[in-house]
Design brief:
With 230 residues, the chain is mainly beta.
Length: 230
């Protein structure tokens, strides 16, 4: 009988990142919609998702993310004279969790239903790019304290805000949005420009990613999510 040496783990070898790429060729099988208007129009044309949202609309990637994550997507805010071509709210959530249902993020999906105030129930990062009718671009960290919002309209502090035209939406332009979480560092870039760069002493390291808009006409394509395991 020959003895076999125990297997040893190679030192310094890191696991390969996991990559998800979405061209919408298979429809919305990878996504969950939370939507507050029956008249919302969602269609796919030439690998581009076209959203006409009369009220609040959130599109969640249905798989949880964890560790160091890079999210990229292209977005186009339409201004072609349509009823909801309002040029506002190129928004997104990431590392979102529901403290009330830590093991089932979508348990309250129908309750949230795209109603913005109900998203204060989530723990997450949020960027509202061109919010408030394209007058502000803001970054916040939500703590999931829905009761404080419901009873006293308390909102999380704004970490950083822009109001100048250079940091608001230019209509009919394909933006490249990139979100990075690496350790304590949280970054948001648009067209390669670093807009928000935050060192979080208590970072959110897992959760869900969602694209958000309201009363708007938005197109999205080429979503890529890269995860490095913690």
């Amino acid at each position: 009988m020959t003895a076999t040496a125990p297997a040893t783990q190679a030192v310094g070898i890191q696991p390969s990142p996991r990559t998800f790429s979405e061209d919408f060729s298979q429809g919305l099988t990878n996504w969950v919609i939370e939507n507050n208007a029956d008249s919302t129009e969602v269609k796919i044309d030439q690998n581009t998702l076209d959203i006409v949202a009369p009220k609040g609309f959130t599109l969640w990637y249905k798989e949880p993310l964890e560790g160091d994550v890079t999210i990229r997507f292209e977005a186009y805010v339409v201004d072609e004279g349509g009823a909801y071509d309002r040029v506002s709210d190129l928004n997104c959530f990431w590392m979102a969790q529901d403290p009330a249902f830590p093991d089932d993020f979508f348990a309250r999906s129908k309750w949230r239903n795209g109603v913005f105030g109900r998203y204060y129930s989530l723990r997450m990062y949020y960027v509202g790019y061109g919010g408030n009718s394209n007058s502000t671009t803001r970054f916040r960290k939500y703590d999931g304290n829905y009761e404080a919002f419901q009873k006293g309209s308390q909102r999380p502090d704004i970490i950083k805000e822009y109001t100048d035209p250079a940091h608001l939406i230019k209509p009919n332009h394909w933006y490249t949005v990139e979100i990075r979480t690496k350790g304590e560092r949280v970054s948001y870039l648009i067209d390669g420009q670093l807009i928000f760069d935050y060192t979080d002493p208590a970072p959110y390291r897992d959760g869900y990613f969602g694209i958000r808009t309201t009363q708007n006409h938005l197109r999205v394509k080429n979503v890529t999510i890269i995860q490095k395991s913690p």
